[in-house]
Amino acid sequence: MQRAIKTRTLIYLLLLPVLLLPGHSCRRKEKGIESKPAVDSLIIPRDSLTMFRGNPAHTFYGSGKAPRKVRLLWKFKTGYILEGEKEKRGVDPKMVWMGVAWSGQPAIIGDTLVFGSCDGKLYCLNKNTGELLWKYKCDHSIKSSPTIYKNKVYFGARDNYLHCVSLKDGKLVWKRKIGNDMDSSPCIINDTIYVGGEDHYIYCFTCDSGKVVWKTEVEGSVESSVAVIDTFLYAGSAKGYLYCLSRRNGNILWKFKTGSDTDVSPVIIGDLLYFGSEGGWMFCLNRLTQKVVWKYKTIGRVISTPAVVENRIYFGSGDGIFHCLSADSGKIIWKFKTDGGIWSSPCVSDSMIVFGSRSGKIYCLTSEGNLVWTFPTGGVINATPALINNRIYCGSHDGYLYCLGSDTL
């Protein structure tokens, strides 16, 4: 079952002593105040995606270009599990967990792709062929997007553990128990993990052993993936707050009331934060003054983490509308109606936008809101796709991970 990962992947890994921001990330300088990145230098390969949205600021949205004419290159079948009696979460014990859940973005480095599944397994595949390299089993579903860092994979699961496994063979290195699910995706900087838990805590762990450096209790569970810049970290909570914490000690510096469950992961562009809430709002907040720059109301709830590219913000809402706004003013530029709610977060690269729909379709639009194509799957899509080197990787609740592309790279 287990196979060695190819030499090309290992070469990439040697170039990854720290997790760093992609060079084409969008950052803004305002009024003479320059925001420094959370890390110092940049060595991450362009065609890699080693954490949810690519970097601590959540500003990497893809590389290459989505194909104008799409076809299925391969698909990989996962399994399923039942909720089970022991969980006692108020869910039907016979409920079937299958496929890739929200937010569920694959992690990719070199020729290697890693993703978590609702069947309780973390899978490692060859990204070119879909061939299974190894798999690691948890005691319950995985919703967290995995993070690859220094030859290891870090992810949370509904078994109430943060797991660390070897990228080479999937063997357990360590796991750390928390008080509830962990759907938040780990943000790793300088051998330190920042992640939220559904036990109402935001955590800081060491990478080498999973030792708790600090943990901070907040109001409500945290499914939002932590965003980091300078000495600050930002995350939303289910009780309707966006929090700003100190990276050094976890002290709460301020909190902003959103008014409803805030699962969206914040996007940092210079001094601005972009994030949404299930109350149907998309916010632009000055993180230095905590003042609202603008807010935009949708009919459906906002679970989709936005993409901010070339002064535009792209995101979907639960009523099936995909929105394009001015990042400066929040004014609508265009809207596109899909045939299902949108939880998936969009990929944007080279004027092409890719996202999934709860109708089971993967959509591709131009940056002006014109439909290029749709690709049907057999189940609801809540997961976030990865657009890497002109190929699209996206999971569905039909139990498959799909790889889409054209005839040539």
Automatic annotation (TrEMBL):
<feature type="domain" description="Pyrrolo-quinoline quinone repeat">
    <location>
        <begin position="183"/>
        <end position="405"/>
    </location>
</feature>
<feature type="domain" description="Pyrrolo-quinoline quinone repeat">
    <location>
        <begin position="93"/>
        <end position="175"/>
    </location>
</feature>
<dbReference type="InterPro" id="IPR011047">
    <property type="entry name" value="Quinoprotein_ADH-like_sf"/>
</dbReference>
<dbReference type="InterPro" id="IPR015943">
    <property type="entry name" value="WD40/YVTN_repeat-like_dom_sf"/>
</dbReference>
<protein>
    <submittedName>
        <fullName>DUF5050 domain-containing protein</fullName>
    </submittedName>
</protein>
<dbReference type="Pfam" id="PF13360">
    <property type="entry name" value="PQQ_2"/>
</dbReference>
<dbReference type="InterPro" id="IPR002372">
    <property type="entry name" value="PQQ_rpt_dom"/>
</dbReference>
<dbReference type="Pfam" id="PF13570">
    <property type="entry name" value="Beta-prop_ACSF4"/>
</dbReference>
<dbReference type="InterPro" id="IPR018391">
    <property type="entry name" value="PQQ_b-propeller_rpt"/>
</dbReference>
